Amino acid sequence: MRIVLGVGGGIAAYKSASLLRLFTEAGHTVQVVPTEASTRFVGIATWEALSGHPVSTSVFDAVDTVNHVRLGHEADLIVVAPATADLLARAAAGLASDLLTNTLLMARGPVFFAPAMHTEMWNHPATQANVAALRSRGAVVMEPASGRLTGKDSGPGRLPEPSEIFAAALAAAAPVGAAAGRLAGKTVTVTAGGTREPLDPVRFLGNRSSGKQGAAVAEAALAEGARVRLIAAHMEVPVPAGAELVQVETALELRDAVHQAAAETDILVMAAAVADFRPGELAENKIKKRDDGADPVITLVRNPDILAEAVQRRAELGSGPALIVGFAAETGDGTSSVLEYGRRKLERKGCDLLVLNQVGRSLVFGQDTTEVRILSPQDAPGTEPVAVAGTKAEIARHILDRIAGELDAPLPSL
């Protein structure tokens, strides 16, 4: 695919070098078109070295090729990262003051913006109006990440990680990108985040899940050309651009959403951290501290096993997802190891694959890296699956590789 990578004049421009590398290593041809301001952060020599193509900011270079017209016409996808507040404003107004904005006006294919700016700039009504205008014209504007910004402040406005932009941008290129995806024509339903079980109007039982791994799986599936439905409980990361969002809060709501989606899902990936228990009763009013000092007694009841139910319903109906993937977040103890608990869970749940990882206060939940083993009922007895470590985006691609491999192999009859 021919990609134009536009680079805006913000300090986050350095991240776009990694984004460029992801595109080129995936086999795409990339033409970098920086703004003049962005070259104060990353020089033209860097872009030429990494892309293997001449780079310019001006419409007056390569005039004989009518560059300001040709680039937009030939591009299968235009990605702007970082997209500063100024660049979004110029694009929304249709200005053509440099090579990049000319290219945007001449675009025939999908256009994708990954904003990066200070929180006040992002939240300003002018920026929000510009974003709305661009989206109304068919451009995809990714939600910025929330985190540490330039200086001491933090909040929404941080450029998402290159791997996240990479997956979301390729998803935005559908149907051009989807045609080559291994999951083109497939519907993938992913559950993500942690459920919250209310105790009273202000309190809940929850867990430490951030939703990062589920979101990364959704992004990887989008990059493979799939239609993706994300059933999201509480998440601390943005919903991937291009995914259909179904918002839930409790385990029972997630269960209903999974059952409803199963009939039109080819692949079900259960990455959400679902609460095992919920309060037996929901207090109508906030639970107060008693004057006599007595502690409240909260009775918990077991939540349904949504993964096992999905497998059972598929068997009973003779239809549903061709592949059901479960996740197991385990802690070992004096009785059994994490792997032993994972194997028992795989047998108990009956799913086609089980992604196993060890969790704890400083492990997996909320972290950007993880280590997993993928278990299958077809594993030879006594074998130990290889542990794969990496960022959650890398692990997501590993999971999608395994899913694609399973779909190529004969599946058990329902």
Automatic annotation (TrEMBL):
InterPro entries: CoaB-like_sf, CoaBC, DNA/pantothenate-metab_flavo_C, Flavin_trans-like, Flavoprotein
A GO MF label: phosphopantothenate--cysteine ligase activity
Keywords: Decarboxylase, Flavoprotein, FMN, Ligase, Lyase, Magnesium, Metal-binding, Multifunctional enzyme
Highest taxon of source: Bacteria
Keyword RNA-binding: no
Entry keyword Chaperone: no
Domain DNA/pantothenate metabolism flavoprotein C-terminal: 183-404
Stretches the record annotates as Phosphopantothenoylcysteine decarboxylase: 1-187
GO BP terms, alphabetized: coenzyme A biosynthetic process; pantothenate catabolic process
Pfam families listed in its UniProt record: DFP, Flavoprotein
EC number assigned by the record: 4.1.1.36, 6.3.2.5
Annotated spans, Phosphopantothenate--cysteine ligase: 188-414
Cofactor: binding comment: Binds 1 FMN per subunit.
Required cofactor names: Mg(2+); FMN
This protein's pathway: Cofactor biosynthesis; coenzyme A biosynthesis; CoA from (R)-pantothenate: step 3/5; Cofactor biosynthesis; coenzyme A biosynthesis; CoA from (R)-pantothenate: step 2/5
Reactions that this protein is recorded to catalyse: N-[(R)-4-phosphopantothenoyl]-L-cysteine + H(+) = (R)-4'-phosphopantetheine + CO2; (R)-4'-phosphopantothenate + L-cysteine + CTP = N-[(R)-4-phosphopantothenoyl]-L-cysteine + CMP + diphosphate + H(+)
All residue ranges annotated as the Flavoprotein domain in the record: 1-169
Coiled-coil segments on the chain, per record: none
UniProt similarity note: In the C-terminal section; belongs to the PPC synthetase family.
NCBIfam families reported for this sequence: coaBC_dfp (TIGR00521)
Job of this protein: Catalyzes two steps in the biosynthesis of coenzyme A. In the first step cysteine is conjugated to 4'-phosphopantothenate to form 4-phosphopantothenoylcysteine, in the latter compound is decarboxylated to form 4'-phosphopantotheine.
Protein name: Coenzyme A biosynthesis bifunctional protein CoaBC
Organism: Arthrobacter caoxuetaonis
Gene transcribed to yield this protein: coaBC
